[in-house]
């Protein structure tokens, strides 16, 4: 059962020689290192921004609501009616 012999070095396992495999190499000077970089940057950035809209939008809406309601309350408290209701300073 455990009598496995030596089968060869890595990549040379003793099988038949592989034939019909063609390898093409492109020189590094012929490649376009930034091919598609602008396209990927625009769409990847827009996808990431869109995924954050629920979180940022919720915080912005809550902040806007607090800001406008407190401005309205401040305007009321500094008005003649607000002074009359809560006493003059």
UniProtKB/TrEMBL annotation:
InterPro entries documented for this protein: Cyt_bc1_su8, Cyt_bc1_su8_sf
DNA damage among keywords: no
Gene Ontology cellular component list: mitochondrial inner membrane; respiratory chain complex III
Keywords of this entry: Electron transport, Membrane, Mitochondrion, Mitochondrion inner membrane, Respiratory chain, Transmembrane, Transmembrane helix, Transport
Location of this chain's protein in the cell: Mitochondrion inner membrane
One record GO biological process: mitochondrial electron transport, ubiquinol to cytochrome c
Keyword Electron transport in record: yes
Protein's membrane topology: Single-pass membrane protein
One Pfam family this sequence matches: UcrQ
Family affiliation: Belongs to the UQCRQ/QCR8 family.
Role played: Component of the ubiquinol-cytochrome c oxidoreductase, a multisubunit transmembrane complex that is part of the mitochondrial electron transport chain which drives oxidative phosphorylation. The complex plays an important role in the uptake of multiple carbon sources present in different host niches.
Quaternary structure, from the entry: Component of the ubiquinol-cytochrome c oxidoreductase (cytochrome b-c1 complex, complex III, CIII), a multisubunit enzyme composed of 3 respiratory subunits cytochrome b, cytochrome c1 and Rieske protein, 2 core protein subunits, and additional low-molecular weight protein subunits. The complex exists as an obligatory dimer and forms supercomplexes (SCs) in the inner mitochondrial membrane with cytochrome c oxidase (complex IV, CIV).
Protein name (record): Cytochrome b-c1 complex subunit 8
Gene source species: Phycomyces blakesleeanus (strain ATCC 8743b / DSM 1359 / FGSC 10004 / NBRC 33097 / NRRL 1555)
């Amino acid at each position: 059962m455990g009598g496995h012999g030596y089968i060869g070095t890595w990549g040379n396992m003793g099988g038949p020689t592989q034939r019909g495999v063609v390898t093409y190499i492109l020189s590094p000077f012929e490649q376009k290192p930034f091919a598609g970089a602008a396209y990927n940057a625009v769409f990847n950035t827009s996808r990431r921004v869109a995924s954050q809209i629920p979180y940022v939008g919720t915080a912005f809406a809550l902040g806007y609501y607090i800001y406008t309601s407190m401005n309205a309350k401040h305007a009321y408290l500094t008005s003649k009616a607000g002074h009359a209701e809560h006493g003059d300073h």
